[in-house]
Backbone:
């Protein structure tokens, strides 16, 4: 989707059901992981990878793909979360539990 720039043509569907954990936690975990996957794809040097593939330099392409796995994408994720006013790490879990105590418990 990212490599081919198909954002306007693709709808992402997520399934959050996991009976062994809290439904809100499953929703947050699934959504954040989808966002992280998109972020990693957006940070990929797509133009360079395509150029290497067109030149049939599959060795350099593989090197680049492998090297990008260890790049610090988490710093970009942390900044994205900060700019959107949400915790970057697992601190959202306390917010979710607070929501459960204040809101969900009233639904009885």
Residues:
């Amino acid at each position: 989707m990212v490599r081919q720039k198909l954002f306007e043509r693709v709808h992402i569907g997520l399934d959050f059901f996991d009976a062994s954990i809290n439904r809100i936690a499953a929703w947050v975990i699934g959504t954040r992981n989808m966002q992280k996957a998109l972020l990693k794809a957006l940070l990929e040097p797509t133009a360079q990878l395509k150029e290497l593939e067109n030149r049939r330099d599959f060795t350099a392409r593989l090197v680049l793909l492998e090297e990008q796995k260890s790049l610090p994408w988490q710093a970009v994720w942390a900044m994205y979360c900060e700019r959107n006013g949400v915790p970057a790490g697992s601190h959202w879990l306390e917010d979710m539990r607070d929501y459960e105590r204040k809101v969900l418990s009233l639904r009885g």
Q: What stands out?
A: The helical segments are 23-43, 46-54, 58-68, 73-83, 92-102.
